[in-house]
Specification:
Layout: H1 2-19, E1 28-33, H2 43-51, E2 55-59, E3 69-70, E4 73-74, E5 78-82, H3 95-103, E6 107-111, H4 118-123, E7 128-130, E8 137-138, E9 153-155, E10 171-173, E11 178-180, E12 186-191, E13 197-198, H5 207-216, E14 228-234, E15 241-245, H6 253-257, H7 263-274, E16 281-290, E17 303-304, E18 308-319, E19 324-327, E20 335-340, E21 342-348, E22 362-368, E23 374-382, E24 390-399, H8 414-450
Parallel strand pairs: 1-2, 1-5, 5-6, 6-15, 17-24
Antiparallel strand pairs: 3-4, 7-11, 8-13, 9-10, 12-14, 14-15, 16-18, 18-19, 18-22, 20-21, 20-23, 23-24
Amino acid sequence: MRRWLALAVALLTYAIGITYAKSATGDSVLVVLEKDLDKKQFSKFFAGLEERGFKLTFREPKAKAPLVIEDDVPQFSHVVFFTPTTKSFAPDLTPQNIVSLLSSGVNMLFTLSPTQTPLTALASEFSLIPTPPNTPLISHFSARDGDGPHTDIRVSVPQDHPVLSPGIPPVLFEGVPHAYALNPLLVPILRAPPEAFASDSENDSGSDSIVDAAEKGGEGLWAGSQLGLVTGFQTRDGNGRAVWAGSISLFSDDSAKKEGYGNLRFVQDVAKWVFQETNVLRIEGALHRHADANETDVFPERYKINDQVRYVVYISKWNPDTGEWELYSGLSDLQLEFTMLDPHIRTALPADKCISGRCSGAYSASFRAPDRHGVFKFVLDYKRRGWTFLHSAITVPVIPPRHDQYPRFLSAAWPYYAGTISTSAGFVLFATLWLVGGGVEREVKKGKKTE
């Protein structure tokens, strides 16, 4: 009896934890904190995570416990790397394990520094191109407090970014930038100001090298808004997210306390996105049926060419305030493809109208099956930067009608009908005239011989 009671309590506790979890993937966070750093320096950032229901566990980079992965099973839902200068990690934090964790759905937050570290090399696997060692971002024109160093840069925050909430003041950045390779999985969040550049000196002694790099172009030019400061990454299947930040001071209490800057709001929005609290979607279900069939008569085994088809998909969005999935009708650029090797039909999937403020989360479209038989797929492939990727594919055959299912007369065949009828009528008319006309001629000839 006690065993069953303990099991019931455990299940109830687990259900409550899931119900009120702020993240769609879990609330356990492992913070890998460098030995020389004190977690009190980032107390506001960590306090914000704890207020949202996350359970933080701290360890050093070389510590062997707690393990981040055990028996190929991740032990945490999220991992934060506050290790900007660490050059060696424990065996469970190798680059191979980090990539494996991200592929299995564990979210990652990385911080970099001008020092060359294993994480700097790992960034290239995410299509990021780090600057050479000891080349921080510098700006001689950025507005700063007093006569501060030129590495303290005031950076404007984009106001229409899907990851960030509107109205965030500029942030104070001190760190290293990175360039972008061509990868659609990258989500640029914060870019360098146009006048900033990466250099190993704060004076203008290296200005000639900057000019030479500008003339050459390509990766030699580490300057301008083509450089990223904070960049997100989302795996191909959309299960795991990662953020690369070129500054650990961006998360510090000193930056959060500065008046006129929005560092705290900015890092909170970044953490919400990377921990999958915001912009998280999923497909609840997809169905198809004949357009004139009942709503319960779904998933027919086959369609005939030129049939009227209706497709419906239900999408929900994670609500971190309630910790529940809610039906979502806010997508305006959803598309459906009906493909056989290539798309034969591509149509928009508009959301059904909301009734009395209640939305069903349904997106539907009706179309006519192509005049071609074969094995087709209903394909929904939604990929937008900053949002969870959605993919659904349903296979269905399209067949021609049976020999006894064609209509008696086809409107498209009327030219052939007319040709057949006219040929038959012409033959009958010709035969009649020939028979009638031939008899008269013989009678005339016979009369001449008699005379």
